[in-house]
Write a structure and sequence with these properties.
Blueprint (H helix, E strand, L loop, with lengths): L1 H29 L1 E7 L8 E7 L6 E11 L1 H7 L16 E8 L11 E4 L2 E3 L5 H4 L10 E2 L18 E5 L4 E3 L5 H4 L5 H11 L7 E5 L3 H12 L3 E6 L5 H7 L3 E4 L13 E6 L7 H6 L1 E9 L21 E4 L5 H13 L6 E5 L3 H9 L6 E5 L11
Parallel strand pairs: 10-11, 10-13, 11-12, 13-14, 14-15, 16-17
Antiparallel strand pairs: 1-2, 3-4, 3-8, 3-17, 4-5, 5-9, 6-7
The structure holds NADPH dihydro-nicotinamide-adenine-dinucleotide phosphate (NDP) and zinc ion (ZN).
Length: about 375
């Protein structure tokens, strides 16, 4: 009896042992090894980092990343400006690449297509916001990095060689477009396009754009393409010429008080992308009656601007807007390509990340840095 019991137990262990080994071997082999650059702790320092992407599921797309934009949000995230970060952190949510593999249910892209990914990689798909195609406001959104995926593992972003993403959050990119300039559209593009559309900007409207960096560059171009007369506000005199070259009617250097005179009650809509503390009341007073200030820039928690109630007089409104939904992202890409609206970019190798972040923090960046992911293979490049 005792002998028989032991024999049965032995066979049972052997059986389950074989099953467990086979399953974990399959799971292991199906996972995808990736390499990129990560911040290991809070701060602006990046190091080469190897990690695993999940196996390509039935509705997933594997993308080999070609370019990734550097958004000011990436700087806020590694600096923990808004909340505690999840480290090691591979930032990057302005991603373009080539489709390398698709799950069996994927229909919108095929192997070899160019595709883009922005700030989100998952939402519940069922709530009111998802049904309205505003997945960014779904309570269960998984962000491209610094977020927990549905299986509880940290999501990792685009400063890397590959990414696995649910098809619903992948956008097909047409052939023959400047891919390195398409990447920033997946955050800077959609974030500015969305509020301009929401506010029905039309020919003749007076629109102001405050903060003329990565997002501001896109806001100015979209608003002009929609027929608006655009005034640009920034602190950097060297950007005056770029604003006028794009077709702005006026550039205001906010550091020069004389340039601020006579601007009150002028604008229908103001898009603010300013990432630090500033006087929102000053901009609210520049609105016409019923005008709106849209806050896109998100200063660190301890630099949140105060809004004097008096500056809202005249039914002036202020609200904050977060990127845009996937349907609108596809519309934005189509609009950008049709009107040839692309950001000003500076291409950098990934080894220059620390320097790029330093420049961004010090206001020395000119519009958008974009990482050329080919540089990942360049192990001998000077740091
Ligand atoms: P950039 O750094 O590229 O651009 C910011 C611009 O604002 C720079 O030109 C900067 O000048 C200028 N600026 C700084 N202070 C002032 C000021 N007081 N008045 C006028 N201009 C000023 O950043 P991004 O465009 O990438 O991002 C901007 C903000 O938007 C960030 O806070 C980011 O997190 C947020 N964001 C929000 C999103 C959303 O969905 N709401 C999505 C993406 C980004 P200088 O360079 O000289 O400092
Ligand atoms: Zn961004």
């Amino acid at each position: 009896m005792n002998h028989q019991f032991h024999q049965t137990m032995f066979l049972a262990f052997l059986f389950f042992g074989i099953i467990l080994t086979t399953t974990s071997a399959q799971e292991h082999s199906a996972k995808i090894s990736a390499q990129g650059y990560a911040a290991m702790t809070a701060g602006r320092h990046f190091v080469p980092y190897e990690f695993e992407r999940r196996a390509v599921g039935e509705s997933d797309v594997l993308i080999e990343i070609l370019y990734a934009g550097i958004c000011h949000t990436d700087l806020h995230q590694v600096m923990e400006d808004w909340r505690k970060g999840i480290f090691p952190m591979v930032p990057g949510h302005e991603i373009v690449g080539r489709v390398a593999q698709t799950g069996k249910n994927v229909q919108s892209v095929k192997v070899g297509d160019y595709a883009g990914v922005g700030c989100m990689v998952h939402s519940c798909g069922e709530c009111e916001q998802c049904r309205k195609h505003e997945e960014q406001y779904c309570p269960q959104t998984v962000w491209t990095y610094n977020s927990l995926d549905t299986n509880g593992t940290p999501s990792q972003g685009g400063y890397s060689d590959k990414i696995v993403v649910d098809e619903n959050f992948v956008v097909k990119i047409p052939e023959n477009v400047p891919l390195e300039r398409i990447a920033p559209l997946f955050c800077a593009g959609i974030t500015t396009y969305s509020p301009l559309r929401y506010n029905n900007v039309k020919a003749g409207d007076n629109v102001a754009v405050a903060g003329f960096g990565g997002l501001g560059d896109m806001a100015v171009q979209y608003a002009i393409a929609m027929g608006a007369k655009v005034t640009v506000f920034d602190v950097n005199e060297s950007k005056r010429q770029s604003a006028m070259d794009l077709g702005a009617v006026k550039f205001v250097n906010v550091r020069n008080e004389n340039e601020l005179i006579g601007l009150n009650s002028s604008f229908d809509l103001m898009i603010s992308t300013i990432p630090t503390r500033y006087d929102v009341g000053m901009y609210l007073r520049m609105l016409k009656v019923d005008g709106t200030v849209v806050l896109l820039g998100m200063p660190p928690g301890d630099q949140t601007p105060m809004i004097p109630a008096m500056s809202l007089m005249g039914r002036r409104k202020v609200y904050a807007s977060l990127i845009g939904g996937m349907k609108e992202t596809r519309e934005m890409l189509e609009f950008s390509v049709r009107n040839k609206i692309y950001p000003h970019v500076e291409i950098i190798p990934i080894q220059k990340l620390d320097e790029a972040f330093q420049n961004l923090a010090e206001g020395k960046a000119l519009f958008r840095y974009v990482i050329d992911m080919k540089s990942l293979d360049d192990k001998n490049r000077d740091l």
